[in-house]
Design brief:
- Keywords: DNA-binding, Transcription, Transcription regulation.
- InterPro entries: ArsR-like_HTH, HTH_ArsR_DNA-bd_dom, HTH_MetalResp_TranReg, WH-like_DNA-bd_sf, WH_DNA-bd_sf.
- Residues 1-98 form the HTH arsR-type domain.
- This is Metalloregulator ArsR/SmtB family transcription factor.
- By secondary structure, this protein is of the alpha+beta class.
- It has one domain: Arc Repressor Mutant, subunit A.
- It has five helices and three strands.
- It has helices spanning 3-12, 16-27, 32-39, 43-55, 77-110; strands at 30-31, 59-64, 67-75.
- β2 (59-64) and β3 (67-75) form a beta hairpin.
Length: 111
């Protein structure tokens, strides 16, 4: 994942309502009205949040076959997996740094 994609991911999720939407969609697909009710957001506010999440490609939407006005939103797995991989790299770096520091301290103690 490119740095600008990671930046965008965290920028979009800086908003607590959008984080809550992502958590809710992690449990399964939902309609906008369900998400608005669960988060306490108004319909227009939820629409704005969903547009931002869609433009950042964190979620997808599909039309309900029987009613083209209704859409079901789903969390996209790919960006979450990519950010997890990025976080794993950061963690590996810090684990390596902490291991080197521990080794240094242990060597100093035995000297």
């Amino acid at each position: 994942m490119a740095d600008d994609e990671v930046d965008r991911f965290f920028e979009v999720l800086a908003d607590p309502t959008r984080r809550q939407v992502v958590r809710l969609l992690g449990e399964g697909p939902q309609r906008a009205g369900q998400l608005a009710a669960a988060t306490g957001a108004s319909a227009p506010a939820m629409s704005r949040h969903l547009r931002i999440l869609l433009s950042a490609r964190l979620i997808t939407d599909e039309r309900v076959p029987d009613d083209a006005r209704l859409r079901v939103f789903r969390l996209r797995q790919e960006p979450v997996v990519a950010v997890q991989a990025w976080l794993d790299q950061v963690q590996a770096h810090w684990q390596e740094q902490l291991g080197a520091f521990k080794k240094h301290v242990e060597q100093k103690e035995t000297s």
